[in-house]
Amino acid sequence: MSENKHHKRREIDHTADTINCISNLPDFPSLDLDDFIIYVSEMNYPCLPELMTSFLNFEERILRSRDAPQIEKFHLSCHECFPSRVSSWISNAVLRNVREVYLCLYSGDPSTIPQCIFGCKTLVILRILIFSDIEIPSSIYLPCLKILDLSLVGFTDNESTQKLFSSCAVLEELVLCSCAFETLSNITISILTLKKLTIKERTDYDIIYSSGCKIKIDAKNLTYLEYNGHLTNEIFLNNVSSLVKACIDIPILHESEKEVACRAVDLLEGLQNVVCFSVSNCTMEANL
Prior knowledge:
Blueprint lengths: L1 H22 L6 E5 L1 H4 L8 H17 L8 E6 L4 H13 L4 E6 L19 E9 L13 E8 L3 H9 L6 E5 L8 E5 L5 E5 L4 H4 L5 E5 L5 E5 L5 E5 L6 E5 L7 H12 L7 E4 L1 H6 L2
Parallel strand pairs: 1-2, 2-3, 3-4, 4-5, 5-6, 6-8, 7-9, 8-10, 9-11, 10-12, 12-13
Helix pairs in contact: 1-3, 3-4
């Protein structure tokens, strides 16, 4: 019994030492912070609060240091989210002229994502996974953003959502994965520079049977389109003459088969100029 306790103690000390070693490293062009190291082993649970405090203090020291260098890439994954602290860390990364941001946050608080990230003039890649709505400011300035990847994000209203998409002047790739559109009624994704669009819809049954949102795609330089979902939202393709490749997967739900089939027809009609077309068997069955 005592030997087992000693083994656990060594595991805990090793984890703490790892965090301490990282905190003593010199300048970071890339900063990848992930609290998974704390949760990876059951050995850590006896002193989880102490390890979490050590991890949080480490992040504070790195991101609040006045001598901290410019951060090229900032990746942050937090299972335990403290909205005000996480927001502060992200804000500090923005101040360091960050070019790539990836946030994986198990948070239900919209304030976790600071609004300053939507005004980061150096940002090229932005990937956000958060179990929450996001607060989109009235003023957005993302002059260098080329990739926007949003997962599990909730959009609150038509106007702010429309503003986000229309403010990305050089965006080339847009990914919307399991995002919540149920509070929206009508939006247009109109991006002249957009080349690649991926939409993967949520499959919750309460979402599937909601009224959905009308999403109009207006992107004349779009070359690739991928859609996967039950067409909870109505998607209309307009001015997509450059579209070369499309991958469509619409699983059948017999309870709403007729409605899904009608929406699928509207979507497929916009693919007339596609050269390479991949469509699932379920999608074909829904339209027969």
